[in-house]
Write a structure and sequence with these properties.
By secondary structure, this protein is α/β, with parallel strands linked by helices. The chain is about 35% helix and about 20% strand. It has a domain at about 5-40 and about 225-295 and about 440-500: 3-Layer(bba) Sandwich (FAD/NAD(P)-binding domain), CATH 3.50.50.60. It contains 17 helices and 19 strands. Helix 1 links the parallel strand 1 and strand 2 (about 25-30). The radius of gyration is 22 Å and the shape is globular. The model has no long low-confidence stretch (mean pLDDT about 95). Bound molecules: flavin-adenine dinucleotide. Flavin-adenine dinucleotide binds near residues 8, 59, 249, 426 and 438.
Length: about 500
């Protein structure tokens, strides 16, 4: 039986393992930590003698394709939910929101009334949907991204605007109002400080909406998002995947196709036919014998996360009936100030440059799924925090984030505990190089067809041209997130390569 070893038991390693074991491969996973899940795990705190679990890394599910959710077996044992209510957007100092309706025409009207938008909101959404459909086809068919295919499927104009172009031009093409541009363009810095002016950054905008588990929207998992990786681990074990946890790799001998590691003070050596790294993209280079390639990547991440615990359900001053809506608070109101804030963080000019805060109403969503917990939970996810300092020495930044949200809440006295993570913490906790939630930045030179480490055009997920070594972590196409898409696409390519070889 063809032997595959996967290094890394995050969502991508787990999804790859699921497809490979079902295709008849003998699959083993080697993981450094004592548990599976990678970044998608829970943490627990005790507040007032009551223990509560919360999402340590990711919180919301959105980018997973629905076919992965179903085909892996996850959909049978995992309950999810996404709010149908409009998202609510606030600009600094304003307590009333602009509503981002799911209905395009209603949205066009709202943006005209609130932000004086006179551009093409409906056309933007329609064109974005065409691009998303195109991306989803790539996912499903395991087709490697290429500008040629995009030109064939979408035409030259949409490809230039949405895939090879820069985010600033895309936003200017459709919108007149700076506020609309900011809202529609904010995901360009989702993974790190990519510049709006850099060719290739337009693609991140449709990319972030290209999941289909919730029809392109973002939502929640009952109990918490870690149930995705926890459940997939169980499914994979039942299918016969072998797990080696708490294992320290020593060397990959790619001449002899073997990997050596230690576990519980014992040394192991396993042979493989195919080796997949579902880690960050720097890790394989540390272990492959005589690795000599130059690696030059944009790595820096600027995401910070505050999890806030309330002893009673949060009451919003505005639109409290939309308690499970995502809310966004902007501290900048032009694209120029948005760009400056993110570039200042990149250049480490200060600890934090407020740009926007995404608020995830985790507790309210859990109640909608009949999971009533002791505390209400809100997550404040923000960008533009410089690398280098851990949360423990950045109390002022945490206070600044919390104090931006608190004026919108009726019952701030119910906030009893909060937990903060900075990019430096993400590096130390989740082993993300430079704290990037996508392992590497979604900058123009690392987006779409350039998000690969392969020197072979027809072998997109191969690692630096090694015949039987693959890479499928968050640093490969499409990007990070609790999606497993790169794990799926890589497994499809590997299966295809073996079939071709046999034929
Ligand atoms: C704070 C935070 C918030 C986020 N928010 C969201 C969100 O709300 N929604 C969302 O979809 N995504 C979110 N993300 C991003 C998402 O969590 C990641 O992109 C995704 O989990 C990456 O999955 P992966 O399998 O590629 O890699 P990882 O989860 O990083 O898994 C890689 C695995 O490889 C293991 N490994 C590394 N080195 C070695 C080695 N030498 N030997 C053996 N094993 C090794 C690691 O221990 C790990 O288990 C967030 C991330 C963070 C940290």
């Amino acid at each position: 039986m063809n032997k595959v070893i996967i290094v890394g038991a995050g969502i991508n390693g787990l999804v790859a393992a699921n497809y490979l074991v079902k295709s008849g491969f003998d699959v083993s996973i080697i993981e450094k930590k004592s548990q599976t899940g990678g970044a998608c795990i829970k943490d627990t705190v005790e507040i007032r003698n009551k223990k509560i679990d919360f999402a340590y890394g990711p919180t919301v599910l959105g980018m997973m394709p629905d076919f992965i959710f179903k085909e892996t077996g996850l959909s049978k044992i995992t309950q999810g939910y996404y709010p149908k209510t409009p998202k609510l957007v606030y600009f600094n100092g304003k307590e009333t929101s602009t509503k981002i309706y799911q209905d395009h025409l209603k949205l066009e009207e709202e943006l005209r009334d609130k932000w004086g938008e006179t551009g093409k909101v409906n056309a933007f959404r329609n064109d974005e949907n065409k691009v998303i459909k195109f991306i989803q086809e790539l996912y499903k068919n395991g087709t490697s991204p290429s500008t040629d295919i995009a030109n064939d499927c979408l035409g030259k104009e949409l490809t230039r605007l949405w895939i090879t172009g820069n985010a600033k031009d895309l936003l200017d093409h459709y919108f007149s109002s700076e506020k609309t541009k900011l809202y529609m363009g904010m995901t360009v810095i989702e993974s790190g400080p990519a510049s709006l002016y850099e060719p290739g950054t337009a693609f991140t905008i449709p990319l972030m909406d290209s999941g289909s588990v919730f029809d392109g929207y973002w939502g929640f998992v009952k109990t918490g998002i870690w149930k995705i990786t926890e459940n997939l681990t169980k499914i994979n074990k039942d299918l016969g995947v072998k797990f080696y946890l708490e294992s320290n790799i020593q060397e990959v001998d790619n001449d002899k196709n073997s990997i050596s590691f230690s576990k519980n003070s014992k040394d192991f050596k396993l042979n493989y036919d195919q080796l997949i790294f579902a880690t960050d993209p720097l890790t394989p280079s540390k272990f492959i014998k005589d690795f000599k390639n130059d690696i030059n990547l944009d790595l820096i991440g600027t995401s910070g996360k505050v999890t806030a615990f309330f002893k009673n359900p949060v009451r919003w001053k505005d639109s409290n009936n939309y308690s499970d809506s995502f809310r966004f608070i902007f501290s900048v109101d032009t694209l120029e100030s948005f760009e400056n804030a993110s570039q200042n963080a990149l250049n480490d000019l200060d600890d934090y440059f407020p740009g926007f805060i995404q608020i995830y109403p985790e507790g309210s969503a859990q109640r909608k799924m009949d999971n009533n917990e002791y505390f209400d939970k809100l997550i404040f996810f923000t960008k533009n925090i410089s690398y280098n300092k851990k949360a423990l020495s950045l109390d002022k930044v945490k206070d600044k984030i919390i104090s931006t949200v608190i004026p919108h809440i009726e019952n701030p006295e119910d906030l009893v505990f909060s937990k903060f993570l900075t990019p430096k913490d993400l590096n130390e906790t989740f082993l993300f190089p430079k704290g990037n939630i996508d392992h590497i930045t979604l900058s123009g030179k690392q987006n779409f067809e350039k998000r690969t480490f392969s020197s072979k055009k027809d072998n997109f997920y191969s690692y630096y041209g090694y015949e039987n070594i693959y890479y499928c972590g968050a640093g490969s196409f499409p990007c990070g997130s609790v999606a497993g898409t790169s794990g799926y696409m890589c497994s499809k390519q590997l299966i295809g390569n073996i079939k071709t070889h046999k034929d």
